Amino acid sequence: xxxxxxxxxxxxxxxxxxxxxxxxxxxxxxxxxxxxxxxxxxxxxxxxxxxxxxxxxxxxxxxxxxxxxxxxxxxxxxxxxxxxxxxxxxxxxxxxxxxxxxxxxxxxxxxxxxxxxxxxxxxxxxxxxxxxxxxxxxxxxxxxxxxxxxxxxxxxxxxxxxxxxxxxxxxxxxxxxxxxxxxxxxxxxxxxxxxxxxxxxxxxxxxxxxxxxxxxxxxxxxxxxxxxxxxxxxxxxxxxxxxxxxxxxxxxxxxxxxxxxxxxxxxxxxxxxxxxxxxxxxxxxxxxxxxxxxxxxxxxxxxxxxxxxxxxxxxxxxxxx
Amino acid sequence: xxxxxxxxxxxxxxxxxxxxxxxxxxxxxxxxxxxxxxxxxxxxxxxxxxxxxxxxxxxxxxxxxxxxxxxxxxxxxxxxxxxxxxxxxxxxxxxxxxxxxxxxxxxxxxxxxxxxxxxxxxxxxxxxxxxxxxxxxxxxxxxxxxxxxxxxxxxxxxxxxxxxxxxxxxxxxxxxxxxxxxxxxxxxxxxxxxxxxxxxxxxxxxxxxxxxxxxxxxxxxxxxxxxxxxxxxxxxxxxxxxxxxxxxxxxxxxxxxxxxxxxxxxxxxxxxxxxxxxxxxxxxxxxxxxxxxxxxxxxxxxxxxxxxxxxxxxxxxxxxxxxxxxxxxxxxxxxxxxxxxxxxxxxxxxxxxxxxxxxxxxxxxxxxxxxxxxxxxxxxxxxxxxxxxxxxxxxxxxxxxxxxxxxxxxxxxxxxxxxxxxxxxxxxxxxxxxxxxxxxxxxxxxxxxxxxxxxxxxxxxxxxxx
Lengths: 321, 466
What we know:
- By secondary structure, chain A is mainly α.
- Chain A has helices at residues 3-25, 27-51, 61-72, 79-91, 107-118, 120-123, 143-156, 161-171, 174-179, 191-203, 210-228, 236-241, 245-252, 263-283, 290-298, 301-307.
- Chain A has 16 helices and no strands.
- In chain A, helix 14 packs antiparallel against helix 15 (290-298).
- The termini of chain A are far apart.
- Helices cover 30% and strands 19% of the residues of chain B.
- In chain B, helix 5 (192-199) crosses helix 7 (229-239) and helix 6 packs across helix 9.
- In chain B, the strands form 4 sheets. Chain B has a 6-stranded mixed sheet, with helices on both faces.
- In chain B, 57% of the residues are buried.
């Protein structure tokens, strides 16, 4: 196993996700992902050159960053979103820290955060919906923004609780969420494709189970709590397979560079991401919170590593003298 | 996939340990080669330091005639083992040799006499041949067994070469209840212990019983990895009717590491910086046990050992019964020399061994002497030593997962590179056993264990200076 091989393994694991994205969103997926990969590679090569460093394009990490960024963008993101996002991902997310292995924040998420704040309209919840389209899935809102809308309507007294329940049940289309026949960002729609990739990565020991488990466990618990108190209308299972939670748990939170190295560190990091995803989903005006949750927890990684230094087998060696 | 029990129950698991790796075993190269006896070399170079502890002083004068088994160097220190002549001949003037670990040591060369008492199969029979009565041990006084180990120059033949009598002395504060015989031989390529266990199980069992008698243990566990079914079978039948149990452990590197072995076999954890006796265990290598039997029952010191000469770079991989002091070059020549694509001669196996030199036609002239701790010589080829180019650490944590001592190797290595003592100590550098699992598994090809070794030396030097 080499660094390059690890990157390629993740790309292999992403193939089902890519396949679903292309099936559901067709040319939109191909052009958006392709553009992100190309610009990321170009940025990596160019910035290496500018900095006078040896070329690292061959390690495939830039391809992976582009791929994950592309998959995390809305299906109809305009070309300049992909370009600016990729430049920010490699430039701000990675190169300024010193390249592969030195960055604190997940480059793809840095890129996505950058375009999310720069092009709020193009990445807002409304942008996903195109009423007149031959792609049927995109004629209605993403599952999470639907749920958010119902909750807001209910709070404002525009609908009754009974109406909201009916609407929620129509939004909880379990099967569609599993196979990916819903509106959303390119890579996040199919839970099955994501799980397939996750199982492959676990079996190949490219990722460790502590992070995804932490994310999933705590988000289920937090959603159940907020579901019980009426803060969110969707059930925990629906939250889990809607939006980018699962995609993030398997492919984004597990980025080796920006996640902790120790077992407990990984687990706590996963817990933190799951917690903040739910907090943002429930309490903020954004329907989805994975990106900010990952970036937030990225910042804690050096501390988590330091707080979870394992006790060696048999305990520390006593100091002489 | 790691399961929850191994994650939570690291302290109590029996049969294996947490962490470790599965490097290619490469044992098939020499596993079927029956032990051969090296034809008597014309000269041997007996190192005066063949163990962990105090250096021996020469007890022979130049041109003095010596017989096999004569003491030619000893030390009054307790942690030391005398060295003996391994061939009959004439002692030469003291000279210097460089051991594989880089240490320069005085050696006594011995020029062989024309007549040797035993050769070939007669020598093999003299060293390992029966009978080895199993009831003899109980008749001996524990003190006499310890004395025999000491006089016989016994040290751990697994590689660490710690003087055996030190381990066998009874200590009232720490009673020993278990003797562990280390027959794991988890290092790739090496098959010497495997062959001794398979071909000559009786002296191993006799030595095990002697060890039990010396320390007063109630049980003895002969621990073997499951990849050596013939040795397991052979020892089981030899142990029948005795108090010795044969325990089969998972094949995993470093199963033969003392701390990992004690944990796997007994569930006990040797305290950090401590030794197995603190948890009531003494660990002895199987070949050492056979040497102990010979020393205690027949009064013969340690003069020969089995050395595995293997690797894709050696023409005829063999297990060779070798007089101590034979040069590496002589052994390589006996095994047909190195192949055209051989690149590297390693003392020991590829995981824990030391690279001695590049491999070429001059390998047959390597003057390094075989010592008591020489378990093998491995000649690697270009394919074995190729690695992907080094990249920056991607903090994947694989080294953390495989570290059998539960350390964070990448942090240790980076701190060593930065000469940052405080960080090295915060991450428990002293607990590292240098098994090399981290460097083996690193996807970025960072020489982690090598850097950590450098860091350890750095700390030692700092302490010396202050």
